[in-house]
Specification:
Layout lengths: L5 E7 L4 E7 L1 H11 L3 H18 L8 E8 L6 E6 L3 E6 L16 H5 L3 E8 L6 E6 L6 H12 L3 E9 L5 E11 L5 H13 L3 H7 L3 H9 L4 E8 L1 E2 L5 H8 L4 H11 L2 E4 L6 E4 L1 H9 L2
Parallel strand pairs: 5-11
Antiparallel strand pairs: 1-2, 1-10, 2-9, 3-4, 3-6, 4-5, 6-7, 8-9, 12-13
Bound molecules: zinc ion.
């Protein structure tokens, strides 16, 4: 069992192929608890969040951010994961209780829940005037294939993507993780074939995660006899960017009339965060004080 959430980035000595691998069991479990997701929704949400955390490890500057939005025609509704450049991620699924019976034993019906029609969008905010947005049509709704299609069509990088979430009978997350393997420009086909074969011979990624002691040993199996270096290691965590101050500031943009009306109708000033489910309660005076500040 791997006891912590982290990722490793590695490259062969000839710099032809890059592999980023992540273990995300605890943070996917936190997402599940925060959103109270069904088994299949946990898997869909966990796959998107894991992918975003892996991709976020390529962000260059501290303030950069990356968001993956999966908008399929299934009952899950849109799934959104947002990450920063230091390994913090948050995510939500629009319909967390949506579920479907699995189509084959041991395999959750993620593709059906997400839907096979729709798009996957990657938004990179790197401090430019306009964020970079890349969008591709969904291939299967299983997320890994859709992301692989994104890399090829939007970034012209041939990639092998594997994402997996293993859900226990009590709905808790038994194991979660993923990997992205990318060919650098001019990479030799033989090295790619070798790695692809090694990956194909492995069990699915969530099973591998549940059985392994650490990511280093999984990397060793994927590289086989190819010499490589580990370029980076980083801890990963579920962490939201919301907070009392930020949400109070949003409420303070309402007019006095709107505030009074909300209190009259609901008896309170309550805001909950989409991304983490945290609920914030405010008094009217608290918000009015905020409005008076310049
Ligand atoms: Zn939040």
């Amino acid at each position: 069992m791997i006891t912590r959430d982290y990722l490793l980035k590695a490259m062969d000595k000839d710099k032809q192929v890059r592999i980023t691998i992540a273990h995300t069991t605890a943070l996917v479990e936190e997402a599940r608890q925060r959103h109270n997701t069904s088994a299949t929704a946990s898997a869909a949400l966990g796959r998107v969040l894991t992918a975003a955390l892996i991709m976020g490890s390529d962000l260059k500057n501290e303030k950069d951010a990356l968001t993956i939005r999966v908008n399929g025609n299934g009952t899950a509704g849109p799934i959104v994961a947002s990450v920063d450049s230091i390994g913090h991620g948050r995510a939500f699924i629009s319909n967390p209780i949506a579920d479907l019976p699995s189509s084959s034993p041991g395999k959750l019906a993620v593709g059906e829940l997400v839907g096979r029609e729709g798009y996957l969008e990657v938004i990179k905010d790197t401090g430019m005037k306009q964020p970079f947005v890349g969008r591709v049509n969904l291939v299967s709704g299983e997320i890994a294939e859709d992301l692989s299609s994104y890399f090829l069509l939007s970034e012209q990088i041939p990639s092998l993507v594997a994402l997996g979430v293993l859900v226990d009978t009590d709905l808790s997350i038994k194991a979660a993780g993923g990997l992205i393997i990318q060919a650098m420009p001019g990479a030799d086909d033989t090295i790619l074939e070798k790695i692809e074969n090694n990956v194909l011979q492995m069990d699915n990624i969530s099973a591998v995660m549940s059985r392994s002691q650490d990511l280093e040993s999984v990397l060793g199996v994927i590289w086989g006899d190819i010499a490589y270096d580990i370029l980076a290691e980083r801890p990963l965590a579920f962490k939201c960017t919301c907070g009392r101050e930020r949400l109070a500031a949003i409420l303070a943009t309402l007019t006095r009339e709107e505030l009074a009306e909300t209190i009259e109708q609901t008896g309170k000033l309550e805001v909950s965060c989409n991304f983490c489910g945290e609920v914030y309660n405010f008094t009217e005076q608290e918000i009015l004080n905020k409005k008076q500040k310049p």
